[in-house]
Recover the amino acids of this structure.
């Protein structure tokens, strides 16, 4: 069985391992498509993921937690699934001779049945790979308490940011402003229907001041009702706090693992800002997300920029690392 392996920091290879034999309580799934998560999996690639940095998980390892395929064998004791069912899973937690960092980029995965859920026939498999990240975006929007008529700024037009922009509109936002450093992502945000965009081409305090001025001009010097910080950097969070109106909310969906952050307490206090962090809950929100997809109100597959065969996994990770891709999916 072929699979993508990160053999050491920065090195992606195509490996082979013996075919799975289904175990009790598990499902054997033939992969149709798996998605690479640009944020988390780049942290796996370079060793920044906390479990790797702390030595709990060691290379070589098999990444990937966005897997959609069909059940080919049902383990003893499993009910509710049949061969041929389309399902979503996070991959194989156990692989012979390898550590799994979810283990989704394989020709086949053997996943615990309790961690697998069916994908309705009317939902595209390419929509299905987004279940985890759409759950992050949805929960971030929910915790932001976006109301009808609100102005929302999305800082960071990666996958979660673009999904949050779509969901903010569903939640009632009247205007969505998307900010990013990459022209390609700004163009994609426009294609997906964001109202206004802002391309940040420089770094530093002067650039941040320019962004603040631009957003204030766009909002008649009021600021945004909600800022969704989807970039996952201290600089982005610092700027997000300055883009929110008085008594506004900053909802953080970008991944932050900094042990400390110099929060501007005076700014938070004087403007009565609310700051919330979100990881998401795909189990809790699954039915709601599937309903939005089935109704055509949420179409995450539009975000896919590259489709590559599994053998091209090294190139897929290079595209992410060089910021040439927003979303890559792999097919066996």
């Amino acid at each position: 069985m072929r699979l993508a392996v990160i053999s050491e920091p920065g090195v992606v290879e195509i490996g082979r391992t013996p075919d799975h034999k289904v175990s009790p309580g598990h499902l054997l799934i033939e992969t149709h498509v798996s998605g690479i998560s640009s944020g988390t999996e780049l942290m796996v690639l370079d060793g920044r993921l906390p479990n790797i940095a702390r030595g709990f998980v060691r290379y070589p390892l098999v990444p990937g937690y966005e897997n959609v395929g069909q059940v080919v064998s049902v383990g003893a004791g499993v009910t509710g699934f049949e061969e041929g069912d389309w399902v979503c899973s996070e991959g194989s937690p156990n692989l012979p001779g390898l550590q799994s960092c979810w283990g989704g980029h394989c020709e086949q995965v053997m996943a615990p049945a309790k961690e697998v859920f069916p994908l309705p026939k009317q939902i595209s498999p390419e929509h299905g790979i987004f279940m985890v990240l759409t759950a992050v975006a949805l929960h971030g929007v929910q915790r932001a308490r976006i109301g009808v008529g609100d102005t929302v700024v999305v800082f960071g037009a990666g996958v979660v940011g673009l999904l949050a922009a779509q969901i903010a509109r569903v939640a009632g936002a009247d205007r969505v402003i998307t900010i990013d450093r990459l022209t390609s992502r700004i163009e994609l945000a426009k294609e997906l229907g964001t109202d206004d965009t802002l391309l940040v081409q420089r770094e530093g305090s002067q650039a941040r001041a320019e962004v603040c001025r631009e957003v204030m001009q766009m909002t008649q010097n009021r600021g945004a009702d909600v800022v969704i910080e989807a970039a996952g950097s201290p600089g982005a969070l610092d700027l997000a706090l300055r883009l929110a109106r008085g008594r506004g909310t900053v909802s953080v969906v970008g991944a932050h693992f900094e042990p400390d952050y110099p929060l501007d307490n005076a700014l938070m206090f004087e403007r009565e800002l609310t700051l919330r962090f979100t990881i998401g809950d795909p189990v809790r929100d699954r039915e709601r997300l599937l309903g939005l997809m089935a109704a055509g109100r949420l179409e995450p597959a539009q975000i896919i920029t590259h489709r590559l065969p599994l053998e091209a996994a090294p190139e897929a990770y290079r595209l992410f690392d060089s910021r040439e891709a927003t979303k890559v999916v792999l097919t066996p």
Q: What stands out?
A: The chain has two domains: 2-119+300-331, 132-277. The two ends are 10 Å apart (CA to CA). The mean pLDDT is 95. Residues 252 and 277 are 5 Å apart (CA to CA).
